């Protein structure tokens, strides 16, 4: 991916539905750069339609990407940041997780779960906060 003004910014495509893909990416970054400074978890997929028409498989796939992907990423990246006592972990949610609308229940539910994950990580900030 191009378009960044600084040479020290790297992007890496990762399959957030695969622990192996995430772990391989984290290893590659740590081996190549020595550390991870910031992670932006921005993966998301839709699952739109009336709840009764959205299959459980489609709902499960939405949750796998929208919630469990960030959960997996947190488990893989945060221990490295904790060890260094430095880093930023950014979760990108959606207003849909706070204000659901018709035909958006499955997506909204998955994003609400992501918001809760962010709240839990933030609530534990005294334990997670890095000090210089």
From TrEMBL:
For this protein, the record's Gene3D superfamilies field holds: NAD(P)-binding Rossmann-like Domain
InterPro entries, sorted: NAD(P)-bd_dom_sf, Sc_DH/Rdtase_CS, SDR_fam
**Keywords of the record:** NADP, Oxidoreductase
Which GO terms label this protein's molecular function in UniProt?
Answer: oxidoreductase activity
- Which Pfam families does the record match to this protein? adh_short
* Family from the record: Belongs to the short-chain dehydrogenases/reductases (SDR) family.
PANTHER family (alphabetical): NADPH-DEPENDENT 1-ACYLDIHYDROXYACETONE PHOSPHATE REDUCTASE
Q: What is this protein called?
A: NADP-binding protein
**Protein species of origin:** Dacryopinax primogenitus (strain DJM 731)
Organism lineage reads as: Eukaryota, Fungi, Dikarya, Basidiomycota, Agaricomycotina
């Amino acid at each position: 991916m191009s378009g960044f003004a600084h040479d020290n910014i790297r992007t890496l495509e990762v399959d957030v539905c695969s622990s192996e893909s995430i772990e391989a990416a984290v290893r590659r970054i740590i081996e190549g750069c020595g550390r991870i400074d910031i992670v932006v978890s921005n993966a998301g997929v839709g699952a739109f339609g009336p709840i009764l028409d959205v299959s459980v498989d489609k709902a499960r796939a939405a949750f796998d990407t929208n919630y469990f992907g960030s959960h997996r990423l947190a488990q893989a990246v945060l221990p490295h940041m904790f060890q260094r006592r430095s880093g930023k972990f950014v979760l990108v949610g959606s207003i849909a997780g706070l204000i659901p609308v018709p035909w958006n229940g499955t997506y909204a539910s998955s994003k609400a779960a992501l918001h809760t994950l962010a709240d839990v990580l933030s609530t534990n900030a005294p334990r997670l906060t890095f000090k210089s």
